[in-house]
Here is the input.
Amino acid sequence: MPPAEGSGSEHTDSVSRRLGRAVTSGAESAAFFASLLSGFLLGFFADRWLGTGPGLTIFGIFAGAGTGFWRMWQYAARLDDPRR
Here is the structure.
């Protein structure tokens, strides 16, 4: 049985949609931080293992940040998709 007119189902759908976007945005923020942290850690431990200077750590930070920004760009493109 479909909901009655003005029963608030549109409001509930709107709230759940906004909550879903908020949760997804939080997950994407965590993924950005994880990309940055993993790039740093991989570079740091590669530097220690190879006995080199901070070059690989710096490269890892930039690679992690680049990966994080790329993921955020993809997420923003999905939000702007009118079919969604």
About this structure: The two ends are 26 Å apart (CA to CA). Residues 27 and 64 are 16 Å apart (CA to CA). The chain has one domain: 9-80.
